[in-house]
Specification:
The complex is a heterodimer of chains A (about 350) and B (about 270). Chain A is an alpha/beta fold. Chain A has helices at about 10-35, 60-75, 90-100, 110-120, 155-160, 175-190, 195-210, 220-225, 235-245, 270-275, 280-290, 290-300, 325-330, 335-345; strands at about 45-55, 80-90, 105, 135-145, 165, 210-215, 230-235, 255, 260-270, 315. Helix content of chain B is about 80%, strand content about 0%. Classes of the chains: A alpha/beta (about 350), B mainly alpha (about 270).
């Protein structure tokens, strides 16, 4: 009688074949990757700046901001700037800077992350002391719709209607997705007569009931929408405009009657610039981001320039008692997000 | 005198392989369990009895079980066909079976969405009848069926190949029809292999993430499986909650594998006795 073995000798050899192919390609990929970020010449004429930015900024920095800033520095000082860039989700980036990643400048997607860096002593506690409260990027939470807006979606309440399939990313994995839910919450709250939380909560529940798929990130969610899934996608205006710029295919969008201004902060990581001795360079980089040229480039990549007028009905997190408070209110342990689901199942 | 170096070489080998096991498997898993129980049993129990965690674990167990049962049947049949019949393309079929091991699971997910998603012809037809597959629970089972496909086949196939057909022939001579022979003679021989394959597929499915995340819809208390829950908790900074649920998945897999070992040992003893 045969002893049960797993797997068979024959498929074992086959598996080894596959494994060696994978191993070979891994080696090739590593080699390619290594040469891709190949060490630039270490000379005296070179200044180094390490940038940690949330993933959405990748294109705007790589293709716009960084080359322009390098030109600006070359003209002003005659020295070359070499950037080391790290792009990650804002929360993950925050955690890695707290635990020792020495980015000189941090560009994050939400101010509570920057506060966390300040509490950890990485960023000056007065990081908000700039003309725009420490913020560098601006965008709006909007609703992406199908060509010609066949379902005539105009506001958040339309997303709660039966027969509307809605997409938005999972706020557990996407920091940006939290903006979407703050927008819906805030619109419900500010749209009711006396800041009625029940109205806000029922709007949130109504929309969530129509959600078909919650992708891990905003970009994945929009990719699903572009593949034809869903009737409406709650997303960020800059992401739609960037998509249009990159792929040339526009997704129509609607600015709801009331919606949230998304603001992303930037600050110098004190411990890093002290270690690298490049405070002047980091300062100059932040000034460049705030300045006219930096803002014009960011606007090319889909953001709203800091000084530009905003549509009527746009509110900010400050109108909702601030980022930390709304974060707790919606996503705390007893927050609305959790309650929304547990209450619903109990009612079934 | 010559034995000493040999014995010490054997000892060295044992130490080396045990240390390797320790570093590669035991250490990371202990770190995980340590994280889960770091602040005591009470918080651990609270974390796994959280309604979201409980539902995710339940959904994972049920979908994995459905997949395992289906694969136990189809896998045995497929192995049967591969061993007992000759047909053109058999070699190709045999090679295709291992493919789910090699395909990145995310690719599996994307492929299934393209095939059964709401935008596909098939998905649209199913949707007409209110049978959502993608972004619903059947989509999860479908993804698991794909990644769990090879296990039962690869477990049953060698047993079938090495099986002594005299017993079957004897049964036939004694007047048993094909089905009776299969049920009374073949199946008892195959059963340990079927159980092994099914249990491995089940364990594999408990942790499946890449393909499921693409097709499940990820809605809390509806279509969010345990690995997706774990991912979400890690990303939102709840490491302990993630570790607690991971520990449950891990413990389940460990129990299954220990059970399989006992089963195989008992089988070995029976044979010797």
């Amino acid at each position: 009688m045969a002893v049960t073995t797993f797997p068979t000798g024959r498929s074992e050899t086959k598996r080894w074949g596959i494994a060696s192919i994978l191993a070979a390609s891994a080696i090739v990929l590593t080699a390619v990757g290594g040469s891709g970020c190949g060490a630039p010449t270490r000379g005296a004429e070179v200044d180094r700046l390490t940038i940690g930015a949330y993933s959405v900024l990748r294109e705007a920095l790589r293709e716009g901001i960084l080359p322009a800033f390098a030109r600006h520095r070359a003209a002003a000082t005659g020295r070359e700037v070499v950037f080391e860039e790290s792009y990650n989700a804002s929360g993950a980036l925050t955690r890695s800077i707290v635990s020792g990643f020495d980015a000189d400048v941090a560009l994050l997607s939400i101010e509570t992350d920057m506060d966390q860096l300040a509490r950890a002593g990485r960023v000056a506690s007065d990081w908000r002391a700039t003309p725009h409260g420490g913020m560098i990027t601006r965008s709006l939470v909007v609703i992406g719709v199908r060509p010609g807006n066949p379902l005539a979606i105009a506001d958040w309440s339309d997303l709660a209607e039966p027969g509307v399939d809605v997409l938005y990313p999972d706020p557990k994995t996407s920091g940006g997705a939290r903006w979407n839910l703050f927008a819906i919450w805030g619109a419900g709250l500010l749209g009711s007569d006396r800041a009625d939380e029940a109205a806000a909560e029922s709007l949130m529940r109504g929309v969530q009931r129509r959600v078909v798929n919650m992708d891990a990130s905003g970009r994945q969610s929009l990719a699903s929408f572009a593949r034809g899934i869903g009737d409406a996608a709650v997303t960020y205006e800059n992401e739609l405009r960037l998509r249009e710029r990159r792929l040339g295919s526009a997704i129509e969008s609607v600015v709801p009657r009331r919606t949230l201004l998304i603001e992303g902060p930037a600050a110098i990581v004190e411990t890093s610039v002290a270690k690298h001795g490049n405070r002047e360079l980091a300062d100059d980089f932040l000034r460049f981001l705030h300045g006219e040229e930096g803002q014009a480039i960011l606007s090319e990549f889909g953001f709203r320039p800091l000084g530009a007028p905003l549509p009527e009905g746009v509110f900010t997190l400050r109108d909702l008692d601030g980022a930390a408070a709304i974060q707790r209110r919606v996503f705390g342990d007893d927050g609305i997000w959790n309650r929304m689901f547990t209450d619903r199942t109990e009612a079934r | 005198m010559e034995r000493v170096p040999i014995r010490s070489a054997g000892g060295l080998l044992r130490v080396a392989s045990l240390s390797y096991l320790g570093v590669m498997i035991v250490l990371p898993l202990s770190a995980l369990a340590w994280g889960a129980f770091a602040d005591g049993l009470g918080p651990f129990v609270r974390r796994i009895s959280d309604p979201f965690a409980r539902h995710a674990l339940f959904l994972t167990a049920v979908t994995a079980l459905i997949m395992a049962v289906i694969n136990a049947v189809t896998g045995t049949l497929t192995a049967w066909v591969l061993v007992r019949y000759e047909f053109p393309g058999k070699g190709l079929m045999n090679a295709l079976i291992d493919l789910p091991f090699a395909v990145p699971t995310v690719v599996t997910g994307v492929m299934l969405v393209a095939l059964y998603g709401p935008t596909s012809v098939l998905g649209a037809i199913l949707g007409e009848y209110g049978l959502g597959v993608i972004y619903e629970k059947p989509g999860i089972v479908l993804a698991l069926l794909f990644v769990g496909y090879p296990f039962v086949i690869r477990s049953v196939q060698p047993v079938l190949l090495e099986m002594d057909r005299m017993e079957e022939e004897a049964a036939a001579t004694l007047g048993a029809d094909g089905w009776t022979t299969f049920r009374r003679v073949t199946l008892p021989t195959l059963r340990p292999a079927i159980v092994t394959g099914t249990a491995l597929a089940f364990s594999r499915a408990l942790g499946e993430f890449g393909s499921v995340v693409m097709v499940a819809g990820n809605r809390p208390l509806e279509t969010k499986t345990a690995p997706m829950y774990i991912f979400g908790e890690i990303e939102s900074g709840n490491q302990r909650g993630a570790a607690a649920v991971s520990t449950i998945l891990l413990a389940a897999s460990l129990l299954i594998l220990i059970g399989l070992n006992i089963l195989q040992r008992r089988k070995g003893e029976n044979r010797d006795g």
